[in-house]
Amino acid sequence: MLKYKLIENVAITSAPPFFTFTSLAPNVSLYDFSSLSDEVLAFSEALDANGTLCQSSKNEWGTSPIVVTGTAQELLSIINMAKLNLSPQMVRELELAIEHADECVTGWTMMSVVRLFQYPIARDSKEFGQVPAVDTHVFPDYTECRPVVEITDELVGSKLALDTEGRDLLEVVPDQLKLFPYSFTSSLPQISRSAPADKSKTKNGATTVVQSYFRAYYGGCRVRAVNTTGVFIEDTCEGSKHWLSYGLMVHSPDDIPLCSTGDVCIHNFFNSLWEWEHYIDPNVPNRVGINLNTFRSRYADRVSISILPGLVVAQMLASGIISLYQVMSHKRSVLLTQIWAYRCQNGVMQVIYLAQVMYHLIYNSDLYLLGLATGTLTTASIANLTCSFFAFRTRSSTWSRLGRGISDWIVDFDSRGR
After folding, report:
1. DSSP-assigned letter for residue 308
2. Quick one: 65 and 174 in the same domain?
3. Residues 134, 114 within the same domain
């Protein structure tokens, strides 16, 4: 409750002071609790007695969040007692969870943590600036238990905070800002909050789950709409001069890429409003385990790739056509001509063909392995692998035919000689 003083009555706060204070070890002697009222202290003791799970200080990921896990009612009481400025949508989700607690049994977690936001720095440019800021997020243990609440004027009103004189600040944005749903209306692609789920892997056998909305801020206030008129914020919020200097701040997803040695990457963009289910292993009672519930959007870098295997197959087919013409037009024994053609075509040339294919596969092995492992192979890559397989199979069958042809010729020659 003491650390929640950092975000009392504000939607977002600066990262440095938050990180400095929340990084302190959970040692009572390091804190001054005189700013907390008797009512807050009694409430805190009641939470401890009920088994509410609280976490702070630096964790294994190098960040220092404030995390509280309990029932929906406990979290709503904390929000009211600590005077936290949360999205009305999330507050309504908790209220509905309390009203329908028996319909989907789940715990709830509230996390305040440093997140990354992007803001436009030049007109009609995809180059956005980045700034860390702290906001608070509420989520259930099981995503299928999240009530679907949309932000409407009945929930919270809006007012014009910035007149853009016909310019849409989000007309041109980085691609990663088009991957997840946002809580405000804008020209960004409309992404559904609902995602299909494997029935056997959800707690309650649900076939769909609901992900959290990303948010945007202007002047420290939650944004309701961005259009050619301007930027609209919640009508209950008064702007902060500190945050006005950054302009429109849009929540950014987390990119956890998987890259090849040549810096070609599979970009795994995650909904950075991370959610999980807590558990405590009886064998390790002093540590908290988590089962992550993640929403991911993935795409791969597009790179040009050599078509050498296709050229090799083309060479082999052209060589075969030439050999066939030589066989059909030669006046000597067809068998002797076949042997001669096979030897000429498949002696030195087979070595050259295979050397070209092997060079291509070795040189691009990291790209093929990355594509095969992640299912992101392009049509050109699949064609290359098909041609490579064809080249190897043709080489094996050709050499086997050549061996049988020579053996038959030798046997025939020996019988004639005798």
Report:
1. H
2. yes
3. yes
